[in-house]
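Priority: medium. Attachment 1 of 2:
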């Protein structure tokens, strides 16, 4: 299997995970953001005095009055150029001076990209929890933190796939160079 097929398969799987709703069997291109004032309705026949944890789970959740719902395209959330620049930039700066075996270099770059994504997530969490606390800042902060982690992990997967491709290519070359004694 060629590296283009692997990259395409990885990209398709990530695309489906992000945009396809397997429960409804349809594509969801937008996500609802904003602040939701939670309202639960209980229509299981029991009165309000009989609330239990099971009733809480079975209640119907809606956003009540005072909620702010903003429809945002998912692609707008995922394509954050500063996040890509930071993750890819630091990965490049760490790996730029690496000389020697290309396979080892791409494997190490895979680990670095993952680490940089984790660093971005940690920085986002620090800024989030040190700032003024409100629901909107929490939503944005977690989004930024996990987006850095997502970009780092995705980059890591693609770098690892390329390193594995190079390994297989080298193995094939080594096997072709060997002669089988008769």
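Attachment 2 of 2:
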């Amino acid at each position: 299997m060629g590296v283009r097929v692997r990259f395409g398969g990885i990209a398709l799987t990530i695309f489906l995970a992000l945009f396809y709703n397997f429960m409804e069997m349809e594509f969801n291109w937008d996500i609802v953001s904003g602040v939701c004032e939670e309202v639960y309705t209980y229509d299981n026949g029991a009165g309000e005095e009989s609330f239990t944890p099971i009733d809480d789970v079975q209640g119907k959740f809606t956003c009540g009055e005072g909620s702010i719902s903003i429809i945002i395209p998912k692609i707008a959330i995922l394509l954050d150029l500063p996040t890509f620049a930071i993750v890819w930039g630091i990965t490049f700066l760490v790996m730029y001076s690496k000389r020697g075996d290309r396979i080892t270099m791409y494997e190490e770059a895979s680990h670095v990209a993952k680490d940089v994504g984790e660093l971005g997530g940690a920085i986002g969490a620090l800024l989030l929890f040190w700032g003024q606390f409100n629901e909107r800042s929490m939503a944005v902060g977690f989004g930024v933190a996990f987006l850095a982690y997502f970009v780092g992990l995705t980059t890591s997967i693609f770098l690892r796939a390329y390193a594995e491709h190079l390994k297989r290519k080298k193995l094939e070359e080594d096997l072709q160079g060997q002669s089988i004694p008769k």
